[in-house]
Structure prediction request, 342 residues.
Amino acid sequence: MIRDETYAVLNDEAQLREKEEIFKRLSLFYGGGHDGRTCNLDGYAFFPQVDPYAQPEKWMYAALDQMAQNVSLMSDKSKLRPLCVEMGFYGVHFVDKILGADVFFQDGNWNAHYLETPVGELAAPDFANNETFLLAERLLNAFLQCGVKLPVFGLPTLASPLNIALNLYGQEFLIALYTDPDAAKRDIRVITDTIASLHRYYRGRLPEAQLQPVVSWQRTQPYGYGQICGCSTQLVSDEIYREFFADADEEILNVYPHGGMIHLCGAHLQHAEIFRGMKSLHALQLHNRAAQDLESYYENLRDDQVIYLNCCEEMPYERAFDITKGRKIIFVESGDPKEIVK
Prediction:
């Protein structure tokens, strides 16, 4: 178990009030408002030198001890800095492994071999006997047993139906969308149900004030919002996305009371109109290549849709600020905040 002093620090009322101020500011931006300042998000996560695959409980206790020793990080008023604990078991292949893929670690990254079974024959997991799920459950149980209120708990990567389908089948799934759409839809149904079930499981066990989806320290949202990883939507047309995946993505976001976010990291502008029309979609997170399209997204999204921006060489902070004047945008690791130009 965690130390008594760790428990005391991570339940300190003054610290909890600072945490609430972070989430109040995020909620203000999600509501279309602003307080005269840009919103700079730079959360902090803790990763102790303990093997979480062998000792998930020990890993959790060590991470919380690290957090308690560094709780002053949250007091930096120039940015929003939630304190997070997140163990991304198997990286972006967590759901793949739950669904039976051979997942392995090589050259510093988690990878997965494609399934040998054809598209359309994917079986739903038996969570009660699934080693990957049970490992993640041990970590969650350890966190809940500690009874600390300050930390944000980040989920493993639950991705999106298209991401998972491509992880499982590669280009064969893209081909199946055209040659055997019924088989593709059967597997999309299994994948969607699996991802939604995992989100419902975590929502049922974690306090709303502590649950955040993946990359919790950089994609922190107000309470009650979920997340989809939309990386691979750059590979499909708007027609294919609308027919096969948009409803599935919304179904997952609708597990949460307020919908949520889609993470983008490529060239996805062909879907901008669809994104605008998704009632459950309230934020886009633009990273890497997607950040270059900030102006188009900013001009075409709804007033109640916020952009999280990871600045890059092609979209530096100064240009992004000129485009947005700090409104409807949350800068991630964006440097010193500036006042909004009235």
